[in-house]
Amino acid sequence: MRRFRYLAPFALMVLCVFTAASDEAPLQGFSPENSRIEREWEVKFRAIPKTENLREYMKRLSARPHHLGSPYDKDNAEWMLAKFREWGLDAKIESFDVLFPTPKERLVELIEPAKFAAKLQEPTVAADPTSNQHDEQLPTYNAYSADGDVTGPLVYVNYGVPADYEQLERLGVSVKGAIVITRYGGSWRGIKPKVAAEHGALGCLIYSDPKDDGYYEGEVFPEGAWRPKDGVQRGSVMDMPVHPGDPLTPGVGATPDAKRLALSEAKTLTKIPVLPISYGDAQPLLEAMKGAVAPEAWRGALPITYRVGPGPAKVHLKVKASWDIKKIYNVIVRIPGAVFPDEWIVRGNHHDAWVNGADDPASGMAALMEEARGLSELLKQGWTPKRTIILAGWDAEEQGLIGSTEWVETHADELRQHAVAYINSDSSGRGYLGVAGSHTLEKFINGVARDITDPETNLSAWKRNQLARIRRAGTPEDRHEARMRPDLRIGALGSGSDWTAFLDHLGIASLNIGFGGEDGGGIYHSIYDDLYWYTRFSDTDFSYGRALAQTGGTAVMRLASAELLPFDFSNFANTVSRYADEIKRMHTTQREQILERNRQIEEGVFRATLDPKEPEVLPQPEPVPPHLNFAPLDNALEALHRAAERYEKTLAKAREIGGAALARASVREVNALLMQSERKLTHNDGLPGRPWFRHMVYAPGFYTGYGVKTIPGVREAIEQKKWKEADEQIARIGKILEDEAALIDNAAKELDKAAR
User: Fold this and answer.
1) Quick one: 733 exposed, middle or buried, by C-beta within 10 A (0-12, 13-18, 19+)?
2) Which ranges of 47-174 would DSSP assign to H, the alpha helix?
3) Strands (E), 395-537
4) β-pairing, 274-277 with 419-425?
C-alpha cells in the first residue's frame, strides 16, 4: 500500500509513573528496580542490529519480483521461516486462500481525433540490474478493477475526488458515458474509479503527473530518484473503506473451508474498468482534449494546455483479468511470556511487493527481521519477556491488507481476549522518526523515541523531531506547544497498512512507526523499486534501518516487560476534545457558508452565464443545516477528562510508595482493564454503511481511503449533510466515551487498591 511517511515530527519526553531510585527516572509502568533492569537489557538490544545484515536481508528479499501468488513470494516466506528457526525462535507459516485477479488483456488507445496506443510497459534501465526481469514482473494494472471493454469521450477530472466533480458541475461538464482521466494524488487510488462510477463514467485511467511524481520534483530515474516518463504506479483499487481483506470472505478468515461469496456478490470490486498509465502514455491523450481550460489548481507539469473536455478525444479502454484463488503465506513467530503469557504484544511488517519492493516493503521487513535476531540473542543471554511477543511477516498487504486481515479475522476471539497492542511498520527510509496511532500510547512512544539515537545528528530521535516541529510551526501557538508540551502529538491512523484490522476492526491499541522525509522519490509500485534505487537514493548505508530495528525492538520489549501497562488517558482525552472542537467548527462554518450563499442568491449576486438563446437558470437556495445537539458528546468528554485525571492522581499515589504497588496481585486486574480500553471505543454495529469498521474514534474516510477521519460517524454525517444520522452518531460516540470513562475509573480504583 501507500508508503507511510510521517514528515511532521512527533514527540519526546516521558512522564514518569514511579519515583526514581537514581537520577534517571523510571520507565512508565516500571518500578525503579525493574526499570533499571529493563534499561540494561534495552541497551544490550540496541547494540545488536547491524547495517550489513539489513543490506543482506533486503538484497535477498528484493532479488526477484515477489507479488502475491508468485513463486518467489513463497520462497521468501520459507526463507524467513528458516532464518527465524535458525535463530532459535518458534516460527510457523499460516496460509490463506484469497481472490487475486491478474490481467489477461489490457488496452488503452486513442481512436479520435488521431490514433495512439499506450505502451503500458515499463522499460529496462541498463544501469538497474533487476529492472529486466519482465517475465516475472506483474504488468502495469490495478488489481480488483472490473473487467470491461468501453469506448467514450475523455474527460479530465484532476484528482478525481468528490470536490473535483463539484467543480466540473459548475463548469457544466458531465462524465456520464465518458472515460475519465485522473492523476494520482489527492486521495487513495481506489477512490478515483469509485467516484467516477458514481457519476456515470464508463471507465477510469489514472496517470502519474510529473508535477506530483516526476521531473518537476527532481531528476528522474536512473539519474535521480523520481519517476521516469514511462514509470507506472501499480496498485489495488479494492474499495477498502468498505472492508479490506479477501473480497470473498468479509469478516471471516479465508481458510480453505470458509464460505465464499460469488464474485458478483463481492462489494469491494470496482464498478468500472480502470488502468494506471505513465505520464508518457497520458500526454498524447491529454493533448487531444479540448473544452474549457482546466482550473489553475488542476494543471500539472506536462508541456501542454490542460483542458477538461469532453472530447474530441475518444478513448477505447479494455481490461480483462483471470479471477483466481491464490495461496498466501504469513510468517508468524511466537516468544512466550514468562509472567503474563496470555497478554500478547504483536509486531508486524509485510513481505510481499508489487514487483521487487526494496523500499516497499523490504526496508521495513529487514528491520523487523533484525529485531527478531536481536531478541533471540537476548533470550540466549537470559532475558525473558513478561508477556508473549508475536512477530509477523504479512503476505498480500499490497492487494488490500489481505494477510493481516485474514489472520486477524481468523484469530479474532483470541485477539480480543489477549492482545495488548499492535506495532506496525511498512516502508522506511532516511529522515525523521514518524509515528501515528492510538493516543493512549502517545506518552509511551514518546518515551521510546527519547531513547533512540538519530544516525545523522546523534541527537535523540525525540529531540530531532522536536526541533523540526519548532522550525516548521505555522503559528506561535504551535511553536510554543512544541517547546513546552511534554509530549509532541502523534497523528491518528486511518488505513493503508496492516494495523487496520487490529485497530479499526477489533479495537486493539496500535502504532505505526517508520523513518522518512529526506528521501523523496517516484519509484513507488514500479519495477524500479529495487536495491539499486534504494542504495542510491534512500537509506544508502542502512543506518536508519538499524534505527528502525532499535525503535521497534525497544517498544516491543518495553510493552512486553512493563509491570503496569503503559497506557495514558490524559493525552487521549485532550486529543479527542480537539477532534470534537474541529467537528463543531466545521459544522458552524458549513452553516455560515450556506447562509451567506443563500443571501447572495436572494440579492441576485449569482447569475448563470448561458447561451442567450436558452432561458437563464438561477441557482437555488440550499437548506440551512440545523443546529445539532452536541450535549451527549460534551458530557462524555467531561466524564472522560475527570476519569483521566483520577487515574493520573492514582498513579501519583503509586509513585509515593515506589515499586511495591506493582508486586501486588491487583495490578493484574488493572492490566486486564487497560487491555480493554481500546475495545471500549468500538461499536458492534460499526460505522453507517460499513459495519466492518467498528472504531468510533479513528477510521479511514469513505472518500479518502487512507486518510483518517476522526470521530468518523459524526464527521462524515455532517460532511454528507445527513443531519438525523449526525445526531444519532453524536449520541453513539457520547455513550462510547462514557463507557470508556467508566472503565478508566474502574482501573483507577483497582490501582488504588494496589497502592494502599
Assistant:
1) buried
2) 51-61, 71-86, 162-170
3) 419-425, 431-437, 510-517
4) unpaired
Rounded to the nearest 5°, which phi and psi values hold at 304?
A: -140, 170
Say which range, 20-24, 151-155, 258-262, 572-576, has the weakest mean pLDDT. 20-24
- Exposure class string for 497-507: b at 16+ Cβ within 10 A, else e: bbbbbbbbbbb
* Residues forming a β-bridge with 109: 117, 316
Query: Whole-angstrom Cα distance, residue 160 to residue 156?
Result: 9
H helices of 388-460, where?
402-410, 412-418, 442-450
Cell of 103: 490481467
Q: Hey, which residues does 101 pair with through a beta bridge?
A: 323
- Please list, residue by residue across 268-304, b when 16 or more beta carbons sit within 10 angstroms of its beta carbon and e when fewer do: bbbbbbbbbbbbbbbbbbbbbbebeebeeebbbebee
User: Rounded distance, CA 177 to CA 492, Å?
Assistant: 39
Residue 563: pLDDT above 80? Answer: yes
Choose the CATH number for 51-98+326-441+495-566 among 3.40.630.10, 1.10.10.10, 3.40.47.10, 3.30.450.40. Answer: 3.40.630.10
474-496 per-position pLDDT tens digit: 999 999 999 999 999 999 999 99
Q: Extract long-range pairs of 68-73: CB within 8 Å, 24+ residues apart.
A: 68/98, 68/100, 68/326, 68/328, 68/352, 68/395, 68/396, 68/398, 68/399, 68/402, 69/100, 69/102, 69/324, 69/326, 69/327, 69/328, 70/136, 72/136, 73/328, 73/329, 73/351, 73/352, 73/395
**What element of type H or E holds 593?**
helix 570-602
Domain ranges of the chain: 51-98+326-441+495-566, 100-322, 571-754
| CA–CA dist 146, 159 (Å, integer) | 20
pLDDT for 709-728, tens place per residue? Answer: 999 999 999 999 999 999 99
What are phi and psi for residue 323, nearest 5 degrees?
A: -100, 80
| 191, HSE (Cβ side, Cα atoms, 13 Å) | 25
Burial annotation 680-710 (CB, 10 A radius, 16+ → b, else e): bbbbeebbbebebbbbbbbbbbbbbbbbbbb
Is CATH 3.20.20.30 correct for 100-322?
Answer: no
Q: Which CATH superfamily is domain 571-754 in?
A: Transferrin receptor-like, dimerisation domain (1.20.930.40)
Q: What would the DSSP string read from start to end of 681-716?
A: GB-TT-BTTBTT--BSSEEE-TTTTTSEEESHHHHH
Q: Could you give the CA distance from residue 157 to residue 181 in angstroms, rounded to a whole number? A: 6
Is the omega angle on the peptide bond into residue 623 within 30 degrees of 0, that is, cis? no
Written as nine digits, the cell of 379 is 533470550
Task: Rounding to the nearest 10 degrees, give the CA dihedral for residues 712, 718, 720, 724.
Answer: 100
Return the ∠ at Cα 84 (arms to 81 and 88), rounded to 5°.
130
Parallel, antiparallel or unpaired: strands 274-277 and 203-207: parallel
Task: List the one residue out of 103, 81, 555, 52 whose CA is nearest residue 351.
Answer: 81
**Rounded (10°) angle between helices 666-675 and 723-754:** 160
Name the H helices within 512-569: 531-537, 543-561
* 1: pLDDT strictly greater than 90: no
| 638's grid cell | 467531561
Rounded Cα distance, 613 and 358, in Å: 61
- Three-state DSSP at 433 gives strand
